[in-house]
Amino acid sequence: MGAYVPRRILASIPTLLVIVTVAFFMMRIAPGGPFDHERALPAEIEKNVLAAYDLDQPLVLQYWDYLLGVSQGDFGPSFKYRDFTVAELLRTGFPASLKVGGLAIVLAVVVGITLGTLAALRQNTGFDYAVMATAMTGITIPNFVMAPLLTLIFGVYLSWLPVAGWNGGAPQNLILPVIALALPQIAYIARLTRGSMIEVLHTNYVRTARAKGLRERLVVVRHALKGALLPVVSYLGPATAQVVTGSVVIETIFGIPGIGRYFVQGALNRDYTLVMGTVIVFAVLIILLNLVVDLLYGLLDPKVKQR
């Protein structure tokens, strides 16, 4: 275990390099540029602007300079938010995305695993059918439909909660976006847990535990749940990265100043460095969370060894 983590981190460097390389050249090859929407500039001024951001250099040289900067933690200046660097924008937006996304994934794990386990224990009953029907509904209804419905019901009609605004991350401003972001994840986790739990409940070691006279709660919690959580843990790696890095739909509807909106605005504005910064953050989170998933596998299943 001691050598496993450093070895995995070193092995992830080439993967991260490929992601950065592909994203860099795709952004540069795409039609348009960061200053195309500006007023028509005289040729001399346009030349000076491009030189100021090193965009007049050959593409390979720009790529090399960017890699050197990233290796030192410098993501470069934003082409559109000209008073800020990309690192400053990410530091400003990431805490909001982390807070909303972290709460959403915790809610999804607790509710999803609970519902999936109860549905498996009551297989082919009315409760099981209700949970699975609700889960399918949660999967099929997208965020851009569910979020406005929540704001309409709880914010406009009932006036229980604010419909938008961050307010420093006040609890009343977090409830609706967290629920809207968590609902699809609850549905996926509940279905995964149910299917895996049904399979585990028919294994020999669970039958043996029941034959020893253990109470059903101990059989489920101590023996069956560990094995049933393996598919859920695999799903949670990329899902957590996706949720934590922010949903542009949720952040736009509820006015959350997270990095999800920065990514889309950067892509629309051809803000190369801002898009690259968010891609790198997302890639690093995916790599780290997949490492955490592998470590959790070793805790949940003794047969899995990290070497």
Radius of gyration over C-alpha positions, nearest whole angstrom: 24 Å
Helix content: over 70%
Q: What is the strand tally? A: 0
Number of domains: 2
Give the integer mean of the pLDDT values. 80
User: What order do the helices and strands follow?
Assistant: HHHHHHHHHHHH
DSSP summary: helix tally:
12
Q: Which CATH C-level class of the largest domain is it?
A: Mainly Alpha
**CATH-wise, what's the superfamily of the largest domain?**
MetI-like
Outline the biggest β-sheet: none
Low-confidence blocks of residues:
none
Report how far apart the termini are: 6 Å
| Basic shape | globular
Proportion in β-strands = under 5%
- Secondary structure category: mainly alpha
CATH architecture of the largest domain: Orthogonal Bundle
CATH fold-level label of the largest domain:
MetI-like fold
